[in-house]
Amino acid sequence: MEEAKSQQYVLLAKGAKGRAVAECIMKATAEPGLFGFRELMALPSVQELQSGDLAPYYKLLQMFAYGVWGDYKSSASSLPELNEQQCIKLKQLTLVSLALKIKVISYQMLQQQLEIPTVRQLEDFIITECFYTSIIAGKLDQKKACLQIHNSIGRDVRPEQLPELEAGLQNWVQAAEGVLESIENRIQYSAQAAEQYRQEREQVEAKAGAVKATLKAEPQEMVSRGDMQLDEGSFDLMDEDRMAGPSIIGERGDRTAGRPKRRLR
């Protein structure tokens, strides 16, 4: 949506000259939902306004691209007067600038930077003009009288700020690469630990299987040994019967033979 609005004003200013470009700047800076002005500022027709009677309009566009409400107030006498929608827009951008630097902003600081006299008006502005328009996301802490910033939109960057921005991005890339390397090392360590655990588990399972097989074979061996002992015992008893037979039965086949005779008186 914002890109479409920006392109609309870029096309209008691209084919315009002088006062028409100035009017385009006033409309663009008042347009709800349009917070980026880099492409509009880069147009030759807009660059031509830097000198001459219409230079204040170019400075005003710069104010909306890079500045804050306090900057405008200090230079208001040399700049075009703002309408109500432009005032709201510049205060929105001021809050965005603060949100990009500070994550917990006190009500006192906000009231000073935005020139909003009461806490009730400040909270209404934040909720209606910032939360509902999604230029910032955060939480109002009435107990601590502060605004907690979760995230916000970006703003245009001055050309002289580009080297600093590039350095910041390079630092971020290096930090991200360090985090990525740490994650990869942890993944590799986890994979090695998992493989070692698998091997140890297989060894334990193999040993457990061998123990189970041994325990299962031992009762059968004990039964076999018991049967063998029983057979040997039976054989011994039969041998004893054969050896004791003649003494019990006697030579005549009389079963009473071999008994001691009674003496007659």
Automatic annotation (TrEMBL):
SMART domains: PINT
Protein name stated in the entry: PCI domain-containing protein
PANTHER family (alphabetical): COP9 SIGNALOSOME COMPLEX SUBUNIT 7, COP9 SIGNALOSOME COMPLEX SUBUNIT 7/DENDRITIC CELL PROTEIN GA17
Keywords: Coiled coil, Signalosome
PCI domain segment(s): 1-154
Keyword Coiled coil among UniProt keywords: yes
Family to which the UniProt record says this protein belongs: Belongs to the CSN7/EIF3M family. CSN7 subfamily.
Region Disordered, residue ranges: 241-265
Coiled-coil intervals, chain numbering: 180-214
InterPro entries according to UniProt: COPS7/eIF3m, PCI_dom
Domain of life where this protein originates: Eukaryota
Keyword match Coiled coil: yes
